Amino acid sequence: MSDEVAEFMTLTGKRGKQAIAIQTAYAICKDVDWEKKTMTAIGQSDDLEYYNVRLGNGSIVKKPKPGTLCLIGLIENQAANSFLVDAAEIEEIIITSGETEFTIKEDGFIVKQDGESLKTVLNDLIDKINELNQEVQKIIVIQGTSPSVPDLTQLVLDKTEIKTRLNTILIA
Question: 31, 33, 103, 141: which has the highest count of C-beta atoms within 10 A?
Answer without folding.
Answer: 103
